[in-house]
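Course assignment 3, question 2. Fill in each field.
Student: A.L.
Task: Predict the tertiary structure for the chain below.
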Amino acid sequence: MIDFVKISIKGISPKQLEQNPLLEFFGNFNRESGHIRTTNKHGKPIIPRQTAFYNSLQFSIYDNGSITVEGSLHKYWNKGAHNYNDFNLNALNEVIKELKHLFNISPDQCYLRQLELGVNIRPPIPSKNIIDYCFLHKTTPFEFIKNSDEGKYKQAEHSQYFIKIYDKARHYKQFNIKGEILRFEIKYRKMEILNKKGIFTLDQLLKYGLYNFKSGLIEQWQNVLFFDKTIKSKTIRLMYYKDQNYWRELLERKSKSAFNKHRTELDNLIVNHSENIKEQVKNRIAQKIDFLTSRGAQIDSLYIGSILTPPLIEIRTENERICMVTGLNISMQKDKSLMLSHTGLKYYFRTDKKIFEQVKRKYLLTRYNNDKIRDQIERIAHNIRNAKNNLKISTERKYKELELQYSLFDINLKY
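Answer field:
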């Protein structure tokens, strides 16, 4: 259920992360002048920071000594590649263990700043036919948002949280996913709601129990004003109810009684004259939460064997495909691929800019940073191939040096 998190880390020193060999930190400064950036794009002051990336997580160390980590724990489980499969409680616990093992970060040190909770389900009808007819959440209109990291999705923005719904299978079409995957989630942008439940840290979130968010997530889905295309009725009102602008106009008139009257009428039409797609989605959300929060769950109903690449060495499957140079997931490339290529680089550029930038920093000289992205990808892929060849040459050279050393001490030499 947990996906994106932004957390502040307490109780560890910046040096602890700076000295970690898995993290390579870079500052935010002007390449020409060397001046450190102290304002954002709107001209507002910001605290200078250094950032590093690992498996889709962004580690930030600020000049005032504060530390944050943000990114998708679900993607981390899949080695930064995707988050379209199921991410159950067992998988979450393994990720938390690895963060402790690799970075000495414990869940009781992780203070929540943002949090996404949601589920991926197999919808009863095509995802698009559900998403297009989600008009409002409570009285807040859904808007289409396009994001380089998450693709296109629908979102209703509230002061404390966002409600998001989108077609996860379409977002990850490079993986040739069979069937539909619909994502429904709540993103807490402020922690007031969670704090009232006594949840401040990741540790407290786990102790509270993800299962206890089941009723809340279902309630948020029930709050969606959804028009069901399977309604079979001759009422003239259907031509109005299927138009999102009609509902917006009702709200703009500030006639709460009229809005509630027509919403109730639509609900009655759905219950009595349709296949009730909304109820079917609700039931699938409930079933998926039951599955994900069961400690005994071993089978992933959205699992695709050749794609899943858990981060822990001892539990990786023999079918996973990892770039032999970068260590990144390359399951979106041809079956015989051994290294991250143009296809994989284009995929990460579209779906996870953080990983792309991490690879770019390591395998592209800064003088090419302003080139067209097509040319950058060409150079990065070329440099990754060279890195493999250089490693091979270096290894062969070491063997020759060892052979030379042994030849200087011929054990068959007689004195």
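Instructor remarks: Confidence is low (pLDDT under 50) at residues 296-318, 402-415. The CA atoms of residues 398 and 404 lie 10 Å apart.
Grade: pending
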